[in-house]
Amino acid sequence: MSTVENESALQPFEATTRLFTIADLEELPTDLPSGPIDYELDNGRLVFIMVPPGDIHGAVQVNIATQLKVQGDFQGHGKTRTEVGVILWRDPDRVVTPDVLFIATKSLPLRRSREGYLETIPELIVEVRSRNDSLRYVERKAEHYLKAGVEVVWVVDPAAKTVAVHTSQGVSVVFGETDTLELPSLVPSFSLPVADIFID
Hints:
Layout: H1 7-14, H2 22-25, E1 31-32, E2 35-36, E3 38-42, E4 45-49, H3 55-71, E5 78-82, E6 86-89, E7 94-96, E8 100-104, E9 124-128, H4 135-148, E10 152-157, E11 162-167, E12 172-175, E13 180-183, E14 187-193, H5 194-197
């Protein structure tokens, strides 16, 4: 997911005392003259998701989601989703749209807000870094995921062909193309060579 934070456009909103809420997202347009638009909430602050992801981003996202689906969902270990709104916390509201997520069986059944967003915190969240995503931006999101109770965050960098794995225990490790990703606490048999993530 490629994200642009439009600072200048946010200035009029930031001058007010009221923060945006989850309910406000339902009232916002998703189609503008310039094209489709989506939103996230960063502690009540509106974040515009304006730049469509590229083909490489899409390929990486599908590769990961497919393996989680086959090795996780189909084996009864949980549920995989892509690009669904997740409420990390409220007051002020933090709503994100991860590229891929996995919710383990222990957290089922899923809880959804009135607006249809997930209230269940996933055990695994995957963010695929796009060319417009600054390192600071994706690292901050990873920190927020862990703060909300996510156990494992993968930050995938297609340009560098690496996966930075961050855990709730404070461990951060970068895996390269010769390495293999595993999820022993979530999907005991899961195995995904990093090189396979970047197959076009």
